[in-house]
Amino acid sequence: MECIASGILLPDGPGVHDPCEREPTDTLSVITGQQAEAITQNAQHALRLLAFGQLYKVLNMNPLPPTKPSHRLSGSDKKGTCRKRQHEDEHTNDRQLFKKMKCNLMGVLDSKMMDPNHPMNALMRLNQVHPGLHYKLLSQSGPVHTPVFTMSVDVQGTVHEASGCSKKTAKLKVALKVLQALGYPAGFEVDLDSLSADERSDSEGRNHRSERNDRMSTSSRSNSVTSTDTCESRIPGPLLTPGGKNPVMELNEKRRGLKYELLSETGGSYDKRFIIEVEVDKQKFRGSGPNKKAAKASAALAALKRLFSDSKDPHNKTRGPRTPVGGQTSLSAHP
């Protein structure tokens, strides 16, 4: 009822989906906006009645008879047609009941606060000593599968910081650090371990999935391109010529008007592979990369190494005869 009263059925709310359907199915498509608004208002009204102890109105039932014998007014007849409690007695009993419930609740909370085995002892103890503390997220670093959060809190002008694999763990660690600085006994490590067990298991699961994706990425990369292109694609950063220039720009200076053709695009969203081919002097060169720009640079670099590397490297001058300027090399076309 609280969920419905919060507005999940309204048009701008999150809605309700059927978990038994394979495809996402909106179960609220059969009701109109007016009906959704009426249901939401009825739920809010029912919650207000519950808050004032009028559950019988929500269930459309008669109120239960009082457990204590009611006092009769002096003007009532012998049959008891007018049975009412006196106004003063009613409020007095309610106040006494409220005080008793409050004392019992405070006793339970105090016992949990002082229990060293309570799972939230560190945060609750610090909140008991210094209520109203504000925890701030300073930074978030590390990869997506193993993030590191740094939280801080200001206690009496002193800022304490701590890091953890989640915001909750970092918050617990900084609370533990403050308690130790205030001189409280260090008996909260067990609570911290029990609360951060879920975060560590989630982190290990993310690490396992990341390692599996890396292995799949490496195997698919080795099967989709040649050995030369694979070595070049594994080099981090942009591909550059030995002179430190962009391969596409340097090849364009030597042969203008070249056309790069996209041959294939493989892989999933986490490991895209593009293969681009360029024809230079009737020879075709291919390059691959995680994006079109990298594949284009790889193809241009392969053409530069094959056709123009002997012009700058003195060890490559004996590879074959060169034609005059403007001519073509005598090398056979690349398959």
From TrEMBL:
SMART domains, A to Z: DSRM
The name this protein goes by in its record: Spermatid perinuclear RNA-binding protein
MF term (GO), any: single-stranded RNA binding
Biased composition (Basic and acidic residues): 74-93, 198-215, 307-316
Domain of life per record: Eukaryota
Domain DZF, first and last residues per copy: 1-91
Biased composition (Polar residues): 326-335
SUPFAM superfamilies: dsRNA-binding domain-like
The organism's taxonomic lineage, starting at the top: Eukaryota, Metazoa, Chordata, Craniata, Vertebrata
GO cellular component, one term: precatalytic spliceosome
Gene coding for it: LOC110525457
Annotated InterPro entries: dsRBD_dom (IPR014720), DZF_dom (IPR006561), DZF_dom_C (IPR049402)
Organism of provenance: Oncorhynchus mykiss (Rainbow trout)
Keywords: RNA-binding
Feature: compositional bias, Low complexity: 217-230
